[in-house]
Amino acid sequence: MDVEILARIQFAFTIAFHYIYPPLSIGLGLVMVIMEGMYLKTGQKIYEQMTKFFVRIFALIFGIGVATGIVMEFEFGTNWAVYSKYVGDVFGSALAAEGIFAFALESGFLGVLLFGWNKVRPSVHFFSTVMVTLGSMFSAIWIVVANSWQQTPTGYHIVGKGLHARAEITDFWAMVFNPSSVSRISHVWLGSFLSGAFLVLSISAYYLLRNRYVDFSRKAFRIALIVGALSAVAQLFVGHQSADVVAKYQPAKLAALEGHYDGTKAGDMYLIGYVDQKKQQTHGLFIPGGLSFLTKGDFKAPITGLNNFKPEDRPGAINFVFQTYHLMIAIGMFLIALTFYSCYLWWKKKLFNKRWLLHIFSYSVLLPQLANQVGWYSAEVGRQPWVVYGLLRTSKALSQAITAGHVIFSLLLFTWVYLVLFILFIYLLNKKIKHGPFDEKNLDHSPRHIEMADSLA
Amino acid sequence: MATFLGIDYQTCWFLLVGAVFTGYIILDGFDLGAGAIHLFFNKEESRRVALNAIGPVWDGNEVWIVIGGGSLFAGFPEVYATLLSAFYVPFMLFLMGVIFRAISIEFRSKEPMLWWRKMWDISYCISSTLIAFLLGVILGNVTEGIDLGPDHVFRGSFLEFLNPYALLTGVTTVALLMMHGAIYLVMKTENRLYTKLTIIVKNTTIFFVIMILLTSFYTLLYLPNMAIVIRRYPELFIVPVMMVLAIANITRQITKRKYLYAFISSAVTISLLMILVAMELYPNMLISTQSAANNLTVYNACSSQKTLGIMLVVAAIGVPLVVGYTTFVFVTFKGKVKLDEMSY
To answer: Going by C-beta distance under 8 Å and a sequence separation of 6 or more, which residues neighbour residue B283?
Structure first.
């Protein structure tokens, strides 16, 4: 295999693995802030136990997120040296800002969050929880700004030629607020909130199904359900906005997302389907003209198709982009339905009566995770063959000093290390959940408590 | 050319990047050193106390390498790209070290089994030592220069990084951080572990003094370039003099059992070592062993003036904040380690 493919596989693998963790920390952080806020407000011990329990889970997630994140920062230089020189002036500043404004904030206060319970006053501890969460959200800002600049570059000019060409900032704020950054940051945040909320929903549903920690789980479930429902519905609008930006600035990507080839025709919107890349046709269930309507407000408006681009300027794996994009949307819709139906049941005071619903919730943690992953796959594979859209091709961005042998060496190393890491992570997470938030001899799930909780539901 | 306090932006950033990496070595250095000597503690409780001594701060300390990497990327993209792609293998091993160190600390306390804890203890010790060693190896290679072609692309072989001088600086860094970590731990412990650590502090200090002497001789004998600046400006001889005094003060304070002062002296030693290297390198950042024309300097490898200016604003806002909450965390967790239910 050639170096380019290997380096791309390595980058895709390491970033996909990394991206399991940061959304969980951001989302779980937000839920923890609410829980600890409730504790400060009500003074009820159960909210303290809740916060402490999820902080322990947070620590596990955060630790792996940091370790796998540092890999990303250095991988730009090791494998993509030409890219690093090309974008350093622009991308590097966002990355450095991330380090100093965001990462330092979250890691600094993490110590207090984890170990400061008996060292500082409750309000100071709460402040630390807020800072860790804000830090992780700021982190997302700068990283997504950098990535968005690669999708829709603005505020730069190109200096030099050939291997010495590079992008230099002409307008810092135009770079930060490039056309796609605001909608993509919101999209990433909401995706993260969903990740965190559904982790809490899953754990709570798991306990409720087993009649453990009933009062605890119901309270946690309700908090997470509110976060989940609001994020799920907000995601619909933000996601649409994000797609609008793609339509405007990355027409080749938009065409790939819906498998749209013929630029003279209106764009259809598929609910499910597949792209036959050889015959250049897309089959499946679709709303005729739906894409035209959503992007141009007219069912008949023609949409730029893949055929408007030379084959070397189109993404290679169109069916892959199509499938990942549609899977993300399908999951998003399902999450809206699931959370709204649950809110309806809550209003009817029947939220915890349906076991089948709790069964769905207990596995639901996988859904936002999957949506986050496939969403990024479609965004990044859809950007190909460019690493910086319209400016720098992925094939030209590699380090010149490395050979296939090196990348195979590091890829193998990452594969087995991440595999071990993942197994250990799942094992320890599972153990923590099974062990539970506190000693079960606490009279939490006595019949009277269930009754009381029922009356509140 | 734009200047800040009379210094041009490129030089400012050379100093800033250097300061951030120095900060990293001082701060994460004691975590790494504590890890490197971890297996000298035999009892379970000693190992837990040692781990919890760095527990609340190591994550914050590690941030400095992230800021360092980011500011090198932003300020000197050519150096960042060339250095990392040239040192592909050591950097990959470094990243493995970072991963294993983090998960060892995190996972160790999650299971009570003896084999489990032993496994993570060993992994923690090896990964910490490996990180320290590779930092020294990379610094050694940067000091010597690497095989850079006319287009600043590394032409050398990938095992070149394991040359005698780099190995020597690698071991010296391990020794330095072992001493630094041991002094930190001795401040955080009591009773028998404290007594044991006082012995470890002595031994690691002797180890460091031997290694720094060897490295100094080797540098002066084989890398005459590394003394050009001092020869030209004899008044700069004050820097090595101060370094020797700082090292001497470490031993003096250890004998007096004033470990906080010993720790400060050891931090000063690290700073002076970095200043010494920076002084002799400047204005080069990566020296080409082929020809001086291929050197990457602060002027031919930097970002645009505009970016350097923006980044100075970022640093001016960010650095005081980071220093502020780092201080807050250190003050919160000052004093001897006490284990509780949330400890590792």
So the answer is: B10, B11, B14, B297, B298, B299
